[in-house]
């Protein structure tokens, strides 16, 4: 592996590791990212970024170059919590390096993507290899774990930044990813009539009405058909709750929460319609509702949105995918693996809502996301930085 980009990234390996350890040591759950955002801003300033801006939502946007073509390297820097601490072999917020990997909460999902992006942009500028006709943005985005894509809805709609291409740096095991299933969060609610629990026949139990719906939901999951290239959609019941005047009364309300994963050609409309068409839903006169997200960011800004996150996919002959394949060949003198994410990313907004050509490439493996003993290989940091530099060079040729 002798490309100039790889050599430059390899020389920066100690700095990559130190910076990753620094930002992993700062807890940054969704809506609590302020400290890590300012730490990343200091790194960008130290490395000579041309501009850094924190928008009203709290997203950090750094830039090098001022060309007419634009690429954004995106990494959300919020994480899930570190629970089940007895399962962790290390302190999740005191990152260590062992067996060639950095361990800690947020290493793979996805502060490693930010580290490789920041240093790729800085190295390109410092080495004089930044293409003249390129504006290269590095975005450290917020609230993704709570509401994927919300940050990019804001960046495009309110900040007015709509780059020619976005590289999502979520973990891909260093493969080129070109899409993902979407998802939607839905509630189904039934109503009953409460009465004293000693005489349940006097009322109507909302939970019993829901019981038939739950069975239909399970059957629906089995009936969903796969669609190429993203595979099969799914529906999972993730929560059930009920209301009643007391624990000695018949339930007068019941609600279930559904996690509906959407494959190719499945949309909000089709997902809602198939639930409303279920015989049990019609029999119970149940209500099907798409949920909304309206939680303040760490700055206090509220930017409401539906909890509908469209699926998206890029064709093999799309210039962004062609550039990614060529970038991998140029950086590593081998052929990339191609694939799709199992989980959801900010691509639901960049590609799914705004139609921006979007490529996935990131350090680490999906299996470590949200898991105890989360880690990322040090070599992945180096290779990801090399790829981002190579991609910038290839994309401007298209």
Structure characterization notes:
- The chain is of the alpha+beta class and 398 residues long.
- It folds into 2 domains: 4-180 and 311-395, Zn peptidases (Aminopeptidase), CATH 3.40.630.10; 182-293, Alpha-Beta Plaits.
- Helix content is 33%, strand content 24%.
- It has helices at residues 4-11, 13-24, 34-46, 107-127, 150-159, 206-223, 268-276, 279-284, 319-332, 347-350, 378-395, and strands spanning 51-54, 60-64, 69-76, 96-98, 101-103, 134-141, 165-168, 176-180, 182-191, 226-227, 231-232, 234-243, 253-262, 287-290, 292-293, 305-306, 308-309, 312-313, 338-341, 358-360, 375-377.
- The chain has a 6-stranded mixed β-sheet with strand order 1-2-6-3-7-20, with helices on one face. Strands 9, 12, 13, 14 and 17 form a 5-stranded antiparallel β-sheet that branches.
- Helix 4 crosses helix 11 and helix 9 crosses helix 11 (378-395).
- It is elongated, with a radius of gyration of 23 Å.
- The two termini are 25 Å apart.
- The mean pLDDT is 97.
Layout of helices and strands:
Blueprint: H1 4-11, H2 13-24, H3 34-46, E1 51-54, E2 60-64, E3 69-76, E4 96-98, E5 101-103, H4 107-127, E6 134-141, H5 150-159, E7 165-168, E8 176-180, E9 182-191, H6 206-223, E10 226-227, E11 231-232, E12 234-243, E13 253-262, H7 268-276, H8 279-284, E14 287-290, E15 292-293, E16 305-306, E17 308-309, E18 312-313, H9 319-332, E19 338-341, H10 347-350, E20 358-360, E21 375-377, H11 378-395
Parallel strand pairs: 3-6, 3-7, 7-20, 8-19
Antiparallel strand pairs: 1-2, 2-6, 4-5, 5-21, 8-18, 9-13, 9-14, 9-17, 10-11, 12-13, 15-16
Helix pairs in contact: 1-11, 2-4, 4-11, 9-11
């Amino acid at each position: 592996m002798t490309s100039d980009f790889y050599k430059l990234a390899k020389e920066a390996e100690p700095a990559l590791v130190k910076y990753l350890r620094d930002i992993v040591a700062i807890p940054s759950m969704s809506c609590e990212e302020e400290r890590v955002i300012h730490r990343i801003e200091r790194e960008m300033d130290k490395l000579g970024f041309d501009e850094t801006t924190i928008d009203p939502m709290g997203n950090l946007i750094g830039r090098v170059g001022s060309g007419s073509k634009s690429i954004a390297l995106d990494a959300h820097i919020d994480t899930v919590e570190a629970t089940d601490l007895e399962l962790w072999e290390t302190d999740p917020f005191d990152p260590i390096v062992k067996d060639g990997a950095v361990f800690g909460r947020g290493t793979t999902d996805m502060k490693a993507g930010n580290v490789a992006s920041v240093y790729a942009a800085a190295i390109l500028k410092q080495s004089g290899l930044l293409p003249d006709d390129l504006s290269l943005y590095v975005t450290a985005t917020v609230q993704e774990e709570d509401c994927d894509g919300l940050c990019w809805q804001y960046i495009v709609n309110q900040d007015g930044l709509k780059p020619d291409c976005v590289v999502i740096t979520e973990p891909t095991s260093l493969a080129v990813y070109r899409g993902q299933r979407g998802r939607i969060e839905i509630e189904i609610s039934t109503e009953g009539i409460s009465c004293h629990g000693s005489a349940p026949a006097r009322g109507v139990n909302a939970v019993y009405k829901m019981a038939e719906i739950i069975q239909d939901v399970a059957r629906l999951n089995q009936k969903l058909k796969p669609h190429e290239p993203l595979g099969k959609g799914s529906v999972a019941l993730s929560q059930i709750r009920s209301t009643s005047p007391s624990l000695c009364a018949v339930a007068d309300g019941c609600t279930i929460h559904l996690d509906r994963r959407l494959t190719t050609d499945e949309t909000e409309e089709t997902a809602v319609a198939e639930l409303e068409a279920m015989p049990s839903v019609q029999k119970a006169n149940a209500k099907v509702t798409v949920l909304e997200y309206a939680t303040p960011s760490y700055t206090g800004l509220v930017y409401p949105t539906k909890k509908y996150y469209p699926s998206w996919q890029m064709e093999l002959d799309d210039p962004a995918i062609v550039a990614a394949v060529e970038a991998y060949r140029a950086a590593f003198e081998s052929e990339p693996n191609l694939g799709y994410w199992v989980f959801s990313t900010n691509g639901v907004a960049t590609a799914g809502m705004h139609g921006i050509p979007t490529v996935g490439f990131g350090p680490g493996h999906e299996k470590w996301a949200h898991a105890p003993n989360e880690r990322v290989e040090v070599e992945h940091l180096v290779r990801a930085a090399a790829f981002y530099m190579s991609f910038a060079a290839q994309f401007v040729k298209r």
